[in-house]
Specification:
Chain A has about 160 residues and is an alpha+beta fold. In chain A, about 40% of the residues lie in helices and about 15% in strands. The first copy, chain A, is globular, with a radius of gyration of 18 Å. At the A-B interface, α2, β1, β2, β3 and β4 of A face α2, β1, β2, β3 and β4 of B. β5 of chain A pairs antiparallel with β5 of chain B, so a sheet runs across the interface. The structure holds a DNA duplex (25 and 25 nucleotides).
DNA sequence: CTATTTGCAAATAATTTGCCCATGG
DNA sequence: CCATGGGCAAATTATTTGCAAATAG
């Protein structure tokens, strides 16, 4: 990632920590920096290995704890929106998914307009695209009505920053 | 799922098994049926519990083995396209993902046209949508050039059935 | 019959937790 | 200071594997 982007992200990190009263420890900064620097959507283990080069005493548990914290703070997202394990789909017809960001439920979504989605430009890096699938992220009715009562939810989880 | 859809899927299952010379065992059929019946994109554990009601001696390992087989056969897909664990993204700017279906690498994809994606109709079930994210599934350059040498790849993994 | 597939148990991998010590503000 | 966070080890959860016995074709 370019130095200017990394610095922008580190500033966002600092601001968010200050705002939420989180200690900007050595470890926490290094973990976030490793994430901010990477292009490859790393898994926790990869972040751990990377941070360990600078802070050899770091523990994997600390990496996991901080990743969770960052996601709650809205500094980080999980790719694909389902952590943990297999979610399976026997529906081979063209369809898309509604994903509840709160309870992680997934509902099939048939929509002609979404079926027409195509990129406006050639894909970077000579990727060969077979199909497009749209994820609509939001809140399911059950979680909508619980909104506002939820604990530990700070801000920034959902929107786009620009 | 409606009975007619389930039967359609069971026929597809039977055909694929015959075609590939797979034994259509009692267990295998029950596992696939449980998947075909479900609306909720279940995890392996949920399938196991469901099948266990009909075949109390079924083992969780059998469920896992068959799920893998079905995915290889193209009878089943994983939602979100990344199995296993956390893939993290510190990029909060609006962007989409190119996902390699073979090696599971994920590359950020900036595209104005994809940023404009919206559903053509109200979302089912009163879901409240915050943002849309597009996944473009395909092959990265490295996997493209390895194409054809790959073992255990039968067919049907990538396309849409209609 | 005989090649596959199952069930079990054990192995491995991934993630979380509890607790006591260290440190940032 | 002293509340928050870190490190370690143990616990939990998720997934895979090896192998003898069962069974589909």
């Amino acid at each position: 990632m370019s130095p200017s982007v990394i610095e922008k992200r580190m500033r966002l990190f600092g601001d968010r920590c200050a705002e939420l009263g989180l200690a900007a420890t050595h470890q926490r900064r290094a973990i976030y920096r490793a994430l901010a620097e990477s292009e490859r959507h790393p898994q926790p283990e990869a972040i751990y290995r990377r941070v360990k080069r600078r802070i050899p005493t770091i523990s994997l548990a600390t990496v996991y704890k901080n990743i969770k914290t960052f996601v709650e703070m809205g500094l980080l997202r999980e790719v694909g929106c389902e952590a943990g394990s297999y979610r399976l789909d026997a529906n081979l017809d063209r369809h898309h998914h509604l994903v509840c960001v709160n309870c992680k439920s997934v509902v099939d979504f048939y929509d002609r307009k979404l079926d027409q989605v195509r990129a406006g430009q050639a894909s970077p890096g000579n990727f060969r695209i077979f199909r497009y699938q749209v994820e609509a992220l939001g809140l399911c009715p059950a979680c909508r009505s619980k909104q506002g009562l939820r604990k530990n939810k700070k801000r920034g989880q959902y929107g786009q920053s620009r």
